[in-house]
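Re: duplicated header lines in exported structure tokens

Our pipeline writes sequence and tokens for each protein into one text file. With two proteins the header for the second block appears twice in some exports. Here is an export where it did not happen, for reference. First protein block:
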Amino acid sequence: MPTCFVHPLPYRADPADYFAAIRHAPGAVLLDAGRPLAERGRYDLISAWPLAELAAAPDESAKDFFDRLRSGLALLGPAEAPAECELPFTGGLIGYLAYDFGRRLEPMPQQAVDDLALPDARFGVYAWALVSDHQHQTSQLVCHPQLAESERQHLLTLFAEPREASEANAFHLSAPFQADIDEHRYRQAIERIQAYIQAGDCYQVNFAQRFRAPCQGDPWLAYRALRAACPTPFAGYQALGDGGAILSLSPERFLRLSQGHVETRPIKGTRPRGRNAEEDKAQAEDLLGSRKDRAENLMIVDLLRNDLGRSCRIGSVRVPELFALESYPNVHHLVSSVSGELAGGKDALDLIAGSFPGGSITGAPKIRAMQIIDELEPTRRAIYCGSLLYLDVRGEMDSSITIRTLLVKDGQVCCWGGGGIVADSDWRSEYQESITKVKVLLETLERL
């Protein structure tokens, strides 16, 4: 088996300096653990100049697109990490699936308007990555054997003295964020969802609203400000064409696959952080003791057990963690873990096909919840509630759910906030929660 070339570099907890060296390059992408402030993520991945770019064609099925992704991996060819070198990525795919890629997997109506025109999926085939391991405090340039030695040397020279780029093209908003719907329309949507629940159509629906503002400048600078205000372990920055970008500050893992072991960590249940230590502790204890939030979380855990069961070995799906508390600068979350072992004859893309989009951001049952979302949310979600992910030539994969995520495109920045609606949800509380989740992001950009 061919082995990757690994070149040690000075360790950097913050990937900004290294990413600054390549952020204007085609296909520049950063999968960011949020260190040193975020605590749970382990790896940063940086890359650019993909050998090929693969975007989902308008009428292409999910199966056909995933087969093209498999072909892209095969084109690069297999490669192992050097002996006793623990690496998450040895060359392969990095990119995104938009929430609306789910329309290629499940029957969906066509009511919500696609006004952002973001491709449903886009991946690059990358022959190198700069990997920082925050557990071992190492940074390394990892090169697939297919990458020419001259290109390896060019990258080593490029990263030898990384420095932050000029901030001449500062990012700013031309006007404050505005919600696409008002409180009255939000209340109508919640009441419609609760009518569906009473009628037996569903148990829970994740409803979201979108905030928008006109903007100018370099989106990387916006990401840097957002990262400082809200560090999270599944963050990421992906450059798009024409100066646009995906800016994700996600706290939520979608699917991880490593050596055949599968894990997903759904978030369901939120409280704002308190203004002082006593109030903050009370909010956390209220969330941990909330029967409503625990019931919502359990619904999604059951849904994900079913999703993983499509691709995992029979009897291997477990729930090793239930109702754990995770705290971030703006909110407390209730988080669980579902795990399993990948079945023989299945791969990472089969796992995604059986589980996408994540149940924590759709509702239960999933397909009916997605249909109701399409009916009641006036516009398509685009990147919101999709996934940023890598999948390497060994079959190793990790992915986020793109909540707390912004899209900079065509002179505007969009951000979404939502939550799970159940029979006893209070629309006013849900409305406030949808704002609380993204308030720090909106206010950070408004101050720039």
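Second protein block, exported in the same file:
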Amino acid sequence: MFQRLFGRERNANRAITEALYAQIVAAARQTVFYSDWNVPDTPLGRFEMLSLHMFLFQHRLRGEEGVAQEVAQVLIDEFFLDVEHSLRELGVGDVGVPKRMKRLAKMFYGRTAAYDDALERRDGDALAAALARNVRPDAGAWPQALPLASYVIDAARQLEAQPSESILSGTVAFPVAKIQ
């Protein structure tokens, strides 16, 4: 399997992982998040939404074996390369990048644990609280956490319904975020 992902078929598989990553990024950049649900349109706010969608993708592939596991790992690697590239574009120097990357990785994995716990328990209120704590820690009460939690639950359901074969061929569909 590993040979298939990185061997002779590397270019084809690279195109698949690039397509999947582009779809994850597009889902994270839906304007509703920033314009109507008050997610900060800042590098950190965009990191939060990309982290959330990366979590949803990883959550969908969890427990799968073989190529699915490899694709999930390649996409996590791509995500962190993208984050590192963004830090450098923001002017963080070579000395500061590793420290910031370590902090952002810790943030990502902490968030995914909180979101996963709430999602597994199907606890919308706990999910909304975790989202509010992470996406808008400065806001105090953030009423938009509830619609975002509802979106996350819908996205998890929609992703679960997608066949693995479809995802592994390069197509992942997230729901369209709508004002409720």
